[in-house]
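ok trying again, last paste got cut off:
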Amino acid sequence: MYTELNSILSTTPDSFTQGEFILVSDRQSDASFLIHHFLSFYLRARCKVCFLGLVQSFSHYNAVSQRLGVSLAQAKEKGQLIFLEGLTESLSVLSQETNSGSQAMDFLRDPTVGLRRLYEFILSSVSSSGGREEGAEEWGPPVLLVDDVSVLLSLGVSAEAVLDFSHYCRATVCSQLQGNAVMLVRCDGEEVVDDGDDEGSERLLKGLTHQCSLTLHVHGLPTGYCRDIHGQVEVCWRRRQGDGQNTQKKLFQYKVHDKGASFFARGTSSAVL
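nice, full thing came through this time. structure:
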C-alpha cells in the first residue's frame, strides 16, 4: 500500500469511496504495481476481495504483498480473499479435466458460453448471501480486482464481450452491492488516432474508460529512460455534474521501490464535458 498514492486519491483504508469502478491502464510501461497497491489497500480495509489473477500465480502476488505488509495466504484462510488463479484454471480446462477447478474459464472450451460462468464465479464470491459460516469474520463491502482483463482478448474473447462482462460486474459489485471494482487493461504500441477501426485492446480501453469513475494511466517518460524516475501516471476523476460530466486530471511522475513507490506532481488540468 502506497501512502503517497492514498494522499493523491484522498483515501485511506478507514475512509474510502464506495461504488467506484477504477480503471488501471498502461502503454509501453508496467502498471502492475498499482494492482498490488489496491490489493493490499482493500485487504487492509477489511473488504471481501475477489481477485482474478489472469497473468501471474498466487505465489507471485503473495510474495509482493508480503513486502507490502499483507499476507494473501492468511486472507484466503480467513475467507477474506477469493483468488482465481487463471493460469491453473486454464490448464485444467485445456487438458480436459472437466471435474476440476471452478469452471469459471469454461469459455476456453466452448466459446459460445461466453464469460457468463466467470461472472457467476464473481457473483458467488462477492455475494453476502454466499453462506457465511457461523463464527466466521464479517467483512466490509466487496471488491473485484482483475489483473488483467485484456488477457481475455488473447484467449479469443471479443472486446464487446469483455465490455459486456465489465458492465455486469460494475452493475453488481459497484451499484447493487456498493463495493468497488479495479481492472487493469494493457495497450501495446503507440496511441493510435481514432479512425473508427481500432484494435481490440484500444477499443476495450475506450469502452472501459467510459464506464469508470477513476482512471490511472501509466506510461513512460516522453524523454525516454531515466534511472531516478520510472514513468508517469495520469490520474483522472470523472463525476456527474448536472447534465454533463466533470473531469479533473492530474499528472504525476513515479518511482517504484522494493516496498513502496514515490509520486511527484507534474501538472493539473480540468474540464467540464
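cool. Confidence is low (pLDDT under 50) at residues 267-273. The longest strand covers residues 244-257.
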